[in-house]
Amino acid sequence: MPIEIPTDLTPEIVPLSWLIGEWEGRGRLGAGDEDSEHFLQHVSFTHNGLPYLQYRAESWLTDDEGTTLRPLTVETGFWALERKQREEDGGPGLIPADIVPVLKSADEVEALRNSDGGFDISVSIAHPGGISELYYGQIKGPQIQLSTDMVMRGSHSKEYTAATRIFGLVDGNLLWRWDVATGKDSSSGSGGLEAHASAILAKVS
Fold first, then answer.
1. Which of 14, 23, 59, 95 has its CA 20 to 30 A from that of 117?
2. Contacts of 151 by beta carbon, 8 Å cutoff, 6+ apart
3. Which tens digit of pLDDT belongs to each residue from 100-140?
4. Binding site annotation covers 158?
């Protein structure tokens, strides 16, 4: 499926534009072994003229046939190119931007391209249970790699110390994998990261 870039996009989010829309599909918890539980997920990436994408993912536990059993979780956040904030940028809070958008041309965005040929990105994601993640990573064409720089937990949150996520566009579908570290003993040998979930999502709008 060809990637269609909306003509009204803020230049700064054009590298992320293939994510925009509604995605839905099925996945497996853990490493996806034969006894791993199944889930259904609906993901949306939307934009409002500001230099970021708004992200929401809602998931439901299902049986092997895909019948929904009960809600699993919801996460929400923001995806953006990682760059130094300028005086013209909005924030913090409700402080309005002096210029919208701050980067007005493809050439200005192209200047942000990194030495690997991609763009550095930051992603913040909030979860129920008092957990918030800050990821840094890279988007290079239809591939994204993210690693947590920080995980913030509330005083009564479950143990959760780090995570990585990868996303890719393959044959028009959004594939992703999420590995997490919970601070417990790990046999993975990868800094405590263990397979948490993975899914294949098709674009529904």
1. 23
2. 131, 132, 133, 134, 160, 161, 162, 163
3. 899 999 899 999 999 999 999 999 999 999 999 999 999 99
4. yes
Q: Is 42 annotated as a binding residue?
A: no
Q: Where are the beta strands (DSSP E) in the chain?
A: 21-29, 38-46, 53-62, 68-81, 119-127, 131-140, 143-153, 162-170, 173-181, 194-203
Q: What are phi and psi of 96, to 5 degrees?
A: -75, 155
Q: What CA–CA distance (Å, rounded) separates 8 from 120? A: 23
Give which of 102, 98, 158 is closest to 128, Cα–Cα. Answer: 158
Among positive and negative, which fits the CA dihedral 199, 152, 163, 91?
positive
| pTM listed for this prediction | 0.92
d(CA 56, CA 159): 23
Task: Please report how many Cα atoms fall inside a 13 Å half-sphere around the Cα of residue 172, on the Cβ side.
Answer: 7
pLDDT digits (tens, 9 = 90+) for 36-62: 999 999 999 999 999 999 999 999 999
Beta bridge partners of 168: 143, 175
